[in-house]
Structures are given as C-alpha cells and as structure tokens.
Amino acid sequence: MAVERSDDNETGGTDRAGTPAEGPDAPKAPDPKIAAAVAAAEAAGPQNGETVRIDSWIWSVRLAKTRSAGATACRGGHVQVNGERVKPAHSLRVGDEVRVRQEGWERIVIVKRLIRKRVGAPVAAQCYVDNSPPPPPRTAVAPAGIRDRGTGRPTKRDRRELERLRGLKEGSRRNSFGGSGGPDGPGKPNSAG
After folding, report:
1. pTM of the full structure
2. Does residue 11 surpass a pLDDT of 80?
C-alpha cells in the first residue's frame, strides 16, 4: 500500500485521480508539429525485416547534405559503423555507432531510429544520440586584399600592400626569370652596351 504525500502535486507527481500534475518538473507535452513530423518519419521508416542503407540514413538525419555526398563519404573511408569502414550500401541497425568525419572534426552518433526520408532538424535530432566532441573553434580570419567595388585596378603601391598583407615576398615577381640583370643573367654586363 502506497502512501501519498501531500507535496506530490507541487513537485510534478500525480494527483489523487492518477493524472499527471502540472508543475515546474512535470514532463512537457511535445510540440504538436514535432509530434506529427515524428509520426511521419516513423511511417516512412522501414517495415519489419527491411533495412536502411548507411548513405541514405546519414542524409536523412542531416549528417550529409545530399545522399550522393553521403555515398562519396562512405567510399572515401570517412564513415565508420562500429569501428569499421563501410560501403554506401551497408545495412544499419538500431544501436550502431556511426562516425562521420567532416570538415576537420568527427561526428559520433548512436542510432536510435531508422528512417529513410529526409526530415526536419528537430525530428532528425531524435533519431540519434550525439556523442560528438565539441567542434573546433572557428578562427576569425579577416580576408586580406578585398577591395571596394568600383575602385578600379590596383596601383603598384596597392599591389605591394596587398602582397605584404598576404605574406608574399616582396619582389618575387621581379626575380622570377633568373636574376635582376639583363638578358645575359645576373652580374654580367649587357651586351648591348
């Protein structure tokens, strides 16, 4: 026999009728739009006994921009399932660990739900558990040498400043043909005179 506490109603427990009480800790009802999208994703998922290709799944949950990009990543060895590189047609199961290497960092996800069709980002996030490390911080690099539109062709002085900003050697264009002397080479006097 269970004894009801009087403060259950305040902490999100159940009231005397057995219905969930509302409070700060009570579970919130999902957004109806997200619930409808989840239902549509489950309906689009594989039936009993059917499988989902890895390239199709990583596209569906928005880990790849296109399905062909997912297939290319698989062929290039950038996708691993349970620690092994896989081909694009590899069958995926619930509970598999998928590692996708992209743009300098690795996404590590565990499959919760199999889907075939691409869904919105909130629904896609419910199809996997993300165990990825945080992405590396982006370095703020100011673009060097962007000129205002309509300023015309750069002068020699502007070109030198742009090369200095870009880190190019000054005078690298001048000595590209073997020296600063005449056609006979450096250090030799001109044959013309």
Report:
1. 0.55
2. no
